[in-house]
Design a protein that fits this description.
Elements lengths: L1 H10 L6 H14 L3 H15 L3 H18 L4 H15 L10 H12 L2 H10 L5 H17 L1 H10 L3 H7 L6 H14 L4 H23 L6 H14 L3 H9 L3 H6 L9 H21 L7 H10 L2 H9 L6 H15 L3 H8 L2 E3 L18 E3 H10 L7 H15 L3 H17 L7 H6 L3 H5 L1 H15 L3 H8 L2 E2 L9 E2 H15 L3 H15 L3 H7 L4 H11 L6 H16 L9 H12 L1 H13 L1 H4 L21 H16 L11 E3 L5 E3 L2 H161 L4 H113 L1 H123 L4 H14 L6 H27 L1
Antiparallel strand pairs: 1-2, 3-4, 5-6
Helix pairs in contact: 2-3, 2-4, 3-4, 3-5, 4-5, 5-8, 6-8, 7-8, 8-9, 8-11, 10-12, 11-13, 12-13, 12-14, 13-16, 16-19, 18-19, 19-22, 21-22, 22-26, 23-27, 26-29, 28-29, 28-31, 29-32, 31-32, 31-33, 32-33, 32-34, 37-38, 37-39, 38-39, 40-41
Length: 1120
């Protein structure tokens, strides 16, 4: 048994491992021509895809994509391929071959070739459930791996985004939900995609889904829709405008109309949906957005602001919903003065800050308070850690209420001061929280911190608010109480916190207020320095080594630097004393180290990147600073950092405030202005020196000009007569030159017109000859065409005659054979078989002969047609070549003659121009010689009569200087004008001759080329038409002849078969004499033989029927 099993195992085929199997399947997938084979290969690869992802991806990815392209119409194949591709993307933690690199490689293969991703987009047109679902999931996998590339590919694909957006209307929930997820990933951070999706009626479709799913109570699907809206609207002004102008804001308002109670397990879904709906609102009113003001007004007009406030001040609302609602309200009024004023007039339900959330509480309470009072209560009196986000959001809402609105800031500050000093205001007060630090306040450090932040927003960038706050004093001096200012009170509270080591958030809050208040305010600095011990306490807190907070120490150093920078020699603690304290007790190294550690602390350094939201259930949040103070610290850090190195004896530059107190000015600004003044003074000095040098140069040039003018006047006095003579001589010479030029120009013009006429005649003659040649060729081609058609008609008629003759011969032979067979049948039965064989042989010979003759005749007709067509084509080609050669020869002759004529004209024009140039040169030489001679004579006369000239010059200089200069200028101008006119005329003639010759030559060349091309086109068209016509007619005639021959042969064969069938019938009845006799009588009746009277009548009827059948067959054959 074991031997038998061993033999079977040895004969069994070798086992195939997974690598070779996958390789074979990949080859089969790419090389198979049948869709069933490819589907089977894809099924097998799917079974390997889970365990051998890398092998399947490397060997079969392109094959799978190719199969998807070829078999996209086959639902089963597409489904299997999509499943396989999805398996390759999914990472299996238990499989060592599964890694993120495979997904990246697969995504690269789809995104680097646009057509690969277009295949998946085209599959979305398939209505099959699994095809659409798997395609959407595969697109999402690709998008997760390569988001930027996939977004660009989908955006550039034709109708890509339109198809994805249209799937939102799919009635099948799984496909619709998958498309929502895909669009969420696709629209993230890509504004172009967001715009296209929005304009594909996305808003209407999304709100329809939300309504179908039950609005904010719908669960995860509604949340996905809201996330898609957030992606479409965030930082996209055009989409926000489209949303606003197409009337979807009321639909957004309807999302906040929460009616009825829901079970506790569904409350979480509702709260999450409400938070995301509030996120949609915040996307419209992001601070600094282009469309934010219009969106704020639209929300206020549609009642969304009041609706959101109702959620924010509802005891039944979740804390996260209330916090997000307050943030949304803050964004809706941020920087909008009109809305800020209206916001303060709104009333809301009173919510006890310390009361827990009660879902069963009524949303419309009886107690109403103004919204500012409610916000102060929530910001200052809510000590619960769970409600910290609500507290922080209320603070942000108040900050937006103050933002960029000085009247509101001052009004709020005055109300707070009045309420604090009078003690009659029962509402929460920021000054009371800052200045009255009790045990309750110490237990809630964020009460002081929030109050400090609000106060910080009020006094920042507002000198008037600082002055109002500086006027606050506590204590009545008349009653013997100590008078303490607000700064001194805050400083005392800070010292208490530092000495008793209170929570660092309280110390940081006071330090933020003091640093912001004292910066560039000398009066506030002097007020702070009234208590000298405060500085020593700050220094002691910095040098403390145990239980020290680096943030507090750094801010203390920053405050000490501000005090030193903006103190004066008249301050309660002079600058020199402050400098001594800083250097002796603190030291420069310690000063620099503490400030550097403050700036490098992650809380300060990474403040902008940290989300200021508290999620922990226990413990205080890690929130220490406000963004306004962080900006202030980073902007002024370098100045405070360098202040330790300044000389304490340096005077502080200051200005007087409105009350006469000095306010500090930036020393850096003063130094910058000084350097600018110095630069301006140096530039002014250089300009003055340059101006003086220019004045000297101008005076020297004026002196030189005066000397030159006097000398010219003396010399011009003797030139007057010579210039008149030269003028007359030149005018005569110019008139002669003008006449000569006009004569030469007329001759050249006449010669040019004659040459032009000759060229036009030659062109016309060549054109006429070309047209005659073309007409002659067209006539010859028409004659050739007619001859070919007549020959083809004759051949066709001859072929038809031959076919008819063969047909009649075949019919006669068949009739004769039938008659002979009937005669032999009457004589003897024993010779029947031999006669039948002979008849059959003769019929076959006849059929073969007719077939052979028909084929030979058809071949002969085709050969003759082909030969005739070839002769016509050769003749046309020969005539075309002759016509082309003749036209080229005539063109060359015309070009040569035109070139010769142009060359002759150019030579003639050159001679004329040369003659004019020589004459001009001669005149210029005469003029130069006359000028030199006059100059020599003038020099001689000047030497002989120098004394007389000097005496005469003084008398007549005033009279003749102007006249001589004018006449000299006129003579020079006339000379220049004449020379310019001659030169211009010469250039115009030369240019005109060249242009005319070039134009004539170009026109001639274009006309000849056009005629030559037209002739060639006509010849080619005629040749092609003749050739095609001949070939088509020959083919048609040959096909008709062959068809007729085949029909004749088929008819003959049918008749032979009929005869053979009749003879076979006769052989079958030879065994029975009686039957044979009956059959014999019937056949005689068929052959029109007389048997008896009854039989003759029957035979006549049968003969008539046979004749009618034969006539019908002949008519059918003729019609065929």
């Amino acid at each position: 048994m074991s031997l038998f099993s061993g033999i079977l195992q040895s004969q069994a085929p070798a086992k195939q491992d997974a690598t070779s199997a996958i390789h074979t399947l990949c080859l089969r997938l790419t090389s198979s021509s049948l869709v069933e084979d490819r589907r089977a290969a894809a099924l097998s690869l799917r079974s390997f895809a889970r365990e051998y992802k890398e092998l399947v991806a490397s060997g079969g990815l392109r094959g799978l994509i190719g199969t998807l392209a070829k078999d996209s119409e086959d639902v089963e194949t597409a489904k299997v391929v999509l499943e396989t591709l999805r398996m390759l993307f999914v990472r299996d933690e238990t499989n060592p071959e599964s890694s993120d690199d495979i997904a990246l490689w697969l995504a690269d293969e789809f995104t680097q070739k646009q057509e690969n991703l277009s295949i998946l987009i085209d599959l979305l047109e398939n209505p099959d459930f699994y095809t659409r679902l798997y395609t959407l999931q595969l697109l999402r996998d690709i998008l997760d791996s390569r988001p930027e590339r996939t977004q660009e590919c989908v955006f550039t694909a034709p109708l890509g985004i339109s198809r994805l957006a249209s799937i939102l209307e799919d009635q099948r929930d799984a496909i619709r939900n998958e498309s929502i997820l895909l669009l969420i990933h696709l629209t993230h951070g890509h504004q172009d995609v967001q715009k296209v999706v929005a304009f594909e009626n996305a808003y209407e479709r999304i709100f329809h889904i939300i309504d179908v799913e039950g609005s904010v109570d719908g669960g995860i699907i509604v949340q996905d829709c809201l996330q898609l809206l957030i992606n479409l609207l965030t930082h996209n002004a055009s989409n926000q405008t489209l949303f606003r102008e197409t009337g979807f804001i009321p639909k957004l308002h309807n999302l906040f109309k929460v009616e009825g109670d829901v079970p506790e397990y569904a409350m979480e879904k509702r709260n999450t949906s409400l938070v995301m709906a509030l996120g949609v609102c915040r996307a419209f009113v992001a601070p600094g957005g282009h469309g934010t003001p219009a969106n704020q007004q639209a929300f206020a007009a549609n009642g969304i602001l009041e609706q959101i406030l109702n959620h924010a001040f509802s005891g039944a609302s979740d804390l996260d919903v209330r916090a997000e609602a307050l943030r949304a309200c803050a964004d809706m009024i941020h920087g909008n003065a009109s809305l800020q004023e209206k916001f303060a007039q709104l009333q809301v339900n009173y919510v006890n800050p310390s009361a827990p959330v009660d879902p069963q509480a009524t949303r419309n309470g009886d107690t109403k308070v103004y919204v500012i009072e409610g916000l102060l209560d929530q910001a200052l009196l809510s000590a619960s850690i769970q409600a910290f986000n609500v507290r922080l959001a209320a603070c942000q809402c108040l900050e937006s209420y103050f933002f960029n609105n000085a009247p509101i800031k001052l009004h709020f500050l005055r109300r707070a001061i009045d309420g604090y000093t009078s003690g009659e205001d029962s509402t929460a007060n920021i000054l009371a929280c800052l200045m009255d630090m009790d045990s309750e306040t110490r237990n809630d450090p964020y009460r002081i911190w929030v109050a400090a932040v609000l106060f910080l927003h009020i006094i920042s960038d507002s000198d008037e608010a600082k002055e109002i706050a500086l006027s606050v004093v506590l204590g009545d001096e008349e009653e013997g109480e100590e008078v303490v200012t607000a700064i001194q009170t805050i400083a005392g509270n800070l010292i208490t916190c530092l000495e008793h080591n209170y929570d660092p958030r309280v110390s940081i809050a006071y330090l933020m207020v003091l640093c912001t208040w004292l910066y560039e305010d000398t009066a506030a600095v002097d007020d702070f320095l009234q208590e000298g011990a405060t500085v020593q306490t700050l220094v002691a807190a910095v040098i403390q080594s145990t239980n020290a907070n680096s943030l507090v120490q750094g801010l203390c150093v920053f405050l000490l630097g501000i005090l030193y920078e903006f103190s004066t020699t008249e301050s309660p603690v002079p600058r020199a004393t402050l400098h001594t304290i800083l250097i002796s007790r603190l030291g420069r190294d310690q000063y620099v180290n503490k400030l550097s550690r403050l700036r490098e602390n992650p809380v300060v350094r990474d403040f902008e990147a940290t989300i200021q939201v508290h999620h922990a259930k226990r413990g205080l949040p890690e929130l220490y600073f406000d963004h306004v103070f962080i900006d202030f610290l980073k902007d002024n850090y370098s100045r405070v950092f360098r202040t330790i190195d300044k000389d304490p004896g340096q005077k502080t530059h200051y200005k007087l405030g409105s009350d006469g107190t000095p306010n500090g000015i930036s020393l850096e600004l003063v130094d910058s202005l000084k350097s600018q003044i110095e630069d301006k003074e140096a530039t002014l000095t250089k300009l003055e020196a340059s101006h003086l040098a220019l004045e000297k140069r101008l005076a020297q040039e004026q002196l030189d000009f005066k000397k030159f003018r006097d000398t010219s006047t003396l010399e011009a006095q003797k030139l007057y007569q010579q210039l008149d003579a030269m003028k007359k001589h030149f005018e005569g010479t110019a008139d002669a030159m003008k006449k000569h030029y006009e004569t030469g120009a007329a001759a050249a013009e006449k010669q040019f017109q004659a040459m032009k006429l000759q060229l036009e005649n030659r062109v016309l003659r060549v054109q006429q000859e070309g047209e005659g040649t073309i007409k002659r060729l067209e006539a010859q081609l028409a004659q050739v065409k007619r001859d070919g058609e007549e020959n083809l008609k004759r051949q066709k008629a001859h072929g038809e005659l031959e076919v008819k003759r063969a047909k009649h011969v075949g019919e006669a032979d068949v009739a004769k054979t039938r008659q002979e067979a009937e005669n032999h049948m009457r004589k003897m039965d024993e010779d029947f078989r031999r006669e039948l064989a002979r008849i059959h042989g003769e019929a076959e010979a006849t059929i073969q002969r007719v077939t052979a003759e028909s084929r030979k005749e058809a071949e002969r007709v085709a050969a003759e047609a082909e030969e005739r067509g070839r002769e016509v084509r050769e003749k046309a080609e020969f005539e075309l070549a002759q016509a082309r050669e003749k036209a080229e020869y005539e063109v060359l002759q015309a070009r040569d003659q035109a070139s010769q004529e142009v060359h002759a004209a150019r030579e003639q024009g050159g001679k004329v121009i040369k003659m004019l140039e020589d004459r001009i040169a001669e005149l210029e030489g005469d003029l130069e010689r006359a000028a030199k001679e006059a100059t020599r004579e003038l020099e001689t006369a000047r030497r002989q009569h120098a004394l007389d000239v000097e005496a005469a010059v003084g008398l007549v200089r005033q009279e003749i200087a102007g006249e001589l200069e004018e006449r000299l200028a006129v003579a020079q101008r006339v000379t220049e004008e004449k020379l310019a006119e001659v030169t211009k005329k010469e250039e115009e003639i030369h240019k005109k001759v060249k242009e005319e010759f070039a134009r004539a030559e170009e026109d001639l060349r274009q006309k000849l080329e056009k005629k030559e091309k037209e002739a060639e086109d006509k010849v080619k068209a005629a040749e092609e038409a003749a050739r095609k016509s001949a070939e088509e007619k020959a083919k048609k005639d040959l096909a008709a002849a062959e068809e007729n021959a085949h029909k004749s042969v088929a008819a003959a064969e049918e008749k032979a078969k009929s005869v053979q069938a009749e003879l076979d019938d006769l052989l079958m009845v030879l065994g029975d004499i009686e039957d044979k006799k009956k059959a014999y009588k019937k056949r005689l009746k068929a052959l029109n033989e007389t048997v008896s009277e009854d039989e003759g009548e029957d035979d006549d009827d049968e003969d008539d029927e046979d004749d009618e059948e034969e006539e019908e067959e002949e008519e059918e054959e003729e019609e065929e």
